[in-house]
Amino acid sequence: MAVSITLRNIIKKYGDKTALNNVTLGVEKGHIHAIIGTTGSGKSTLLRVIATLSAPSLGSGYINGLNLGARQNQIRQQIGYMAQDSRFEESLTLLENLVLQGKLHGIDQADLLNRISGFVTRFNVVDQLHAFPSEVSHGTRRKMEFIRAVLHNPSILLLDEPSASLDLECKELMETFLHEQKLRFTTVLVSSNIDQVEKIADRISILDDGRLVADGTLKELKESEQEDRILDITLSETDEKDINILDAAEGIISYRARGNQYEIVMESSVNSETVIALFNGRVTEAVPRLPTLADIFKRMVKVEAIHE
Known about the structure:
Layout: E1 3-14, E2 17-28, E3 32-37, H1 43-50, E4 58-63, E5 66-67, H2 72-77, E6 79-82, H3 94-104, H4 109-122, H5 138-150, E7 156-160, H6 168-180, E8 186-190, H7 194-200, E9 203-208, E10 211-216, H8 218-224, E11 228-235, H9 242-248, E12 252-258, E13 261-267, H10 272-277, E14 283-289, H11 293-300, E15 306-307
Parallel strand pairs: 3-8, 3-9, 6-7, 7-8, 12-15
Antiparallel strand pairs: 1-2, 1-4, 4-5, 9-10, 11-13, 11-14, 12-13
Helix pairs in contact: 3-4
């Protein structure tokens, strides 16, 4: 499979802060590659580097064979970028914003209007075309921003939290489009929606404090975690000492407490019965299971015990 995006040893610094620390990454053509991480992990910075909106401090990269540092104008013509924050020209209507985007990419007027008509119909925003950005809802703005990103049929599509804070209908519209049109684009998706990533991503990268700590398909990431097991337990009653007992127990990697329910990640050498015995007969249900992407994410970014 051909590679559309190649990054090698990318370092990005802002003063004394290192936003990206030696990131090496490849994105295959026609794939949806998701990037997940905690707030401040470097996800948006990485997307801006790929979009040539932020030059790396060190390292190199190629977008469709074009040098990231030397061929920025050519690369930008091939990219559709949807930022996390709104980038509309507020003095223009939404239609005028879309027309401006099309003209910047040299699209013929008739073709451009046909494309706009098709997209706004599909995303149910026909009635909002002549409104100004400030006059429409957040959901409408995000759908229009998504349309603007794909309007010129880019070969590289960069999406930064495209469906954040949107209702289910909006999310499904975007996900369905990305799935149906996947082979038209090489998509890099930054998302905090783990369920969305599991559903549509071909490959997943996890960033933690600017470092790439995991990269692979969902299957590969799950297989890498098979040595650890997860036990979901429900207690008849809680005890204030439970947390101290789990913190001191051998072979427990992490746990998450929600009322009288615990999600416990154990080393493979630990027997479930041993963990159950820690609660002195208060366990009413114990269910072992394989890790989800959320479990893997918590492990990779070193999330320790979380008490809620």
